[in-house]
Amino acid sequence: MTRRRDHYHDPAAPPANSLVPGGSALVVDDHGRILLQRRADSGNWALPGGTMDIGETLGQCIVREVKEETGLDIEITGLLGIYTDPAHVIAYADGEVRQEFNITYLGRVVGGTITVSDESTEVRFVDPAEFDHIPIHDTVRLRLRHHAEHRNTPYLG
Predict the structure, then answer these.
(1) How far is CA 52 from the centre of its chain?
(2) pLDDT score of 2
(3) Under CATH, to which class is 4-149 assigned?
């Protein structure tokens, strides 16, 4: 059962009632594959990440979340972009409707072993050639496209 539903430029989307700072990491291996997890709550493949806890920086949050969700230790190497589109809201089963607020960092693996958490059903490095054949939400596809474009500056949106 889906515990969340993403609405993206959907006129029937419920109005947002929450804004929570969070982020994700786009981590590439030596073969150009990107670290993705298949989310247990939606079935979509996504970048690992999550929301900040009080007392940590967003960078610390991302390192912690990647470790919790994938088993891998990473270091932050750059910034892909800032994604705050008010037309992307996420409706949760408890009634929260969260407006997107995601800062996506670039990172690289420095240790650990891939492990599936209770938030995912699969974790692996995915070849970009597979992206068109697996379920990925449009907002994650946007980040993957921005990475593939080898932008000189972060996306600010």
Answers:
(1) 13
(2) 54
(3) alpha beta
